[in-house]
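U., I forgot to send this yesterday:
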Amino acid sequence: MRSHPARRFAFAGVGLVVMALGIAVMTLAGLGTSPISAPVWVATLAGGLTFGGWTLVLNALMFVAQLLILRRRFPATGWLQLPAALVFSSAIDLWMWVFGWIQPGHYALQALQVLVGAGLLGLGVAIQVAPDALYLPGEGLIATIAKVTRSPFARLKVVFDVTLVAAAVLMSFLFFGELRGLREGTVVAAFLVGTVVGVTMPAVRRTLAAVLGDGR
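Result:
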């Protein structure tokens, strides 16, 4: 058992909330959203549920997919994805409400907001991943497919993101007859978030070690 599990869960929970903040800030800029949120945002524009509500639906589908693939081999710790998804989805709706008044009037401000949002998302991912305590169903599904197919996680992550963006494009044309919800901000997020994760991870790990009090 890893040391201080409660602190690890709390640290990862902070990461989920920061991730949600990044997605909300980026999306409200009006230049698209992150690749993994692309189909969810298109569904939100079409109506029915909130951004967080559709996010929870997508995460639930990904969780069920893992159960169907692994069946009895599904790990007990995998059930922690459910509360993680609930916190993440609720936080998205919270931040969308808190910052819903933001309407940048100039493209330069929109672009800056996308960069800030992508930076926050990358930082949130680093905080969430570092404790190795909680993960979202999207990550769980990729890990499941990687395990079954014996394929590299990183390669499948790229395929997964591209598939989600393609699905969002298809949904957009089906719902609206034109492209909505995906713009240059989606492309920027695809490249920038991973870079921010790599840059911030050393500092995040040092912070985690201080929180755990183990000096690592």
